[in-house]
Amino acid sequence: MNDSTTPDGPKIRVSVCMATYKGAPFVQExxxxxxxxxxxxxELVIVDDASPDATASVIGGITDARIRxxxxxxxRGYVRTFExxxxxxxxxxxxxxxxxxxxxxxxxxxxxxxxxxxxxVGSNFDMLGGGPRPWIPRLRSSDSRRHLANLAGIxxxxxxxxxxxxxxxxxxxxxFAPIPPYVRESHDLWLAICGNVAGSITHLDESTIYRRLHxxxxxxxGWRSLPKILAARIxxxxxxxxxxxxxxxxx
Length: 251
Prior knowledge:
The protein is α/β, with parallel strands linked by helices. The protein has helices at residues 27-35, 55-60, 78-88, 107-115, 147-156, 170-176, 187-197, 226-249, and strands at residues 14-20, 43-48, 67-71, 93-97, 102-103, 120-127, 166-169, 201-211. Helix 7 (187-197) packs across helix 8 (226-249). The protein starts with 13 loop residues before the first strand and ends with a helix.
C-alpha cells in the first residue's frame, strides 16, 4: 500500500478513488464537482474497468494534473477496480467516489474533520433532483459509537453505509485492502465493518453528495431472492470474522 509521501513533491493530503465503467454520460459533471473540492496537492485516481464506451476518452479529455487515469485492459468488476484505485492512491485520506453522483460543496472539509478522530467516516446523501431515498434510514451521528449495533445493522441491512459517502485514513487502508477474494459486491460494507470492528468510525448527520439513480447504476436495486439474501448474509459474517482477525494482527 502506498503512503502519502512522493519522491518529488509534498505529501498528498486527499486521494479520491473512483472506479468507472460505461460512465460517459455523467462522469465529467462528477469530476468537476470533485475537483472543486480538492486542493492543489490532492489527487483523483480513476481506474476505468475496460469501459466499452467513451468513458476513458471523456476523462482523458479533462486537463487537470490532479487526475490520474489508469485504463484496465480487462473488466474485473467494480470491487476489484476500487481496490486497484486504493492501491494506487498516495494520499493520507482516501475518499471513495462513484462516477455519476455530484459532490456537495464542503464535503471534503466536513469529512476530514471527522477523520481527525476516527479511521472511517460515513455520511448521508440526498437524491439529485429530489425524489424519494431508499428505505434504509439515514446514518445518525449518535450511533457512531454503537459498534455492535452497527454491525448488527449491517447484517440485517438497515445501516446506510454507501461507499460514495465514505472516506478513511491511510492507517485504515491496511485493514481494508486487500479485499477478501470472495467479495464481489459491498466493498462499502466491508469498509464499514473494518471501522466498526476497530471501534473507530464516525457517522455524519449531513449529506455530502447528491446521488444519481439511473439504469446503469452498479448498486443492486429492488428486492432480492431468498437464496441471494442468505448468501449475502453469510458473506457479511465471514467479513466480520476476517475484520476481527486483521485488527488483532495489527497490534
